[in-house]
Structure formats: structure tokens, C-alpha cells
Amino acid sequence: MKTGNVLLAVVAGAAIGAAFGILFAPNKGSKTRKKIARKSEKFTDELGDKYEDFVDSITEKYEDLKEKATHMAEKAKRKTEEITEKAKQEAEKMAKKTKYGEGVEA
């Protein structure tokens, strides 16, 4: 099960438990409604905070992966340029040998 789903289930369970606790408490209806409203507001604020934390975490992971991918791409580009330069030098050497008859058998 994913962490986000587990977190959501725990928060939802806590909210449902709190709501049932308030509903079955021996208070007047108006007092109970006020408690439910306060608890709902608190729950909404906590859920909003958890959502922001989740988004921040995902954003941070995305930025980290983006940085690593950029670094890997730059490294691959440098390596490709090195290999291309070596191949070019070898081709020039072979061309010179061929031009001057070195290493060519008749």
C-alpha cells in the first residue's frame, strides 16, 4: 500500500472516530454542532497542511531527479564528444597512412 493511501486512511479514520465521539457525547445539539464545526475546521487545516507537505516532498524529489538527469546527460555528452574526437583523430591517422602509402600492401 502506498504511503499516501495509508496516511489518508489514518487521517480519515481519526476524523470519523472524532465525529462519532462528539455525536455520542452527552451535550446539547447546538454545543455538539459547534464541536463538529470546530473539529471539521481543524481536520481540514491538518489535511491541507499534510497535502502541502506531500506536494513539497514530491517537488523536492522531482528537482533532485531533474538535477541528476541533467548531470548524467552532460556526462554522456562529454563522453560522446571525447569518443568522437578520438575517432576523428584515428581516421586522420589512417588517411595519412593511406595517402603516403604506409601500411598499404600491394
What features would you describe in this structure?
The chain is mainly alpha-helical and 106 residues long. It has one domain. Helix content is 87%, strand content 0%. Helix 1 packs antiparallel against helix 2. The longest helix has 71 residues, at 29-99. The radius of gyration is 34 Å and the shape is rod-shaped. It starts with a helix and ends in a 7-residue tail after the last helix. The mean pLDDT is 83.
Key features?
single chain, 106 residues, mainly alpha, 2 helices, 0% strand
Task: Describe how the helices and strands are arranged.
Elements (H helix, E strand, L loop, with lengths): L2 H21 L5 H71 L7
Helix pairs in contact: 1-2
Coarse morphology: rod-shaped
Low-confidence stretches: none
Radius of gyration from the CA trace? 34 Å
Please report the total strand number as a whole number. Answer: 0
Overall pLDDT score: 83
Number of domains: 1
Q: Specify the helix fraction band.
A: over 70%
Could you spell the SSE succession in H and E letters? HH
Distance N to C terminus: 73 Å
Strand content: under 5%
**Content-based structural category:** mainly alpha
The biggest sheet, with number of strands, parallel, antiparallel or mixed sense and barrel status, is: none
Number of helices: 2
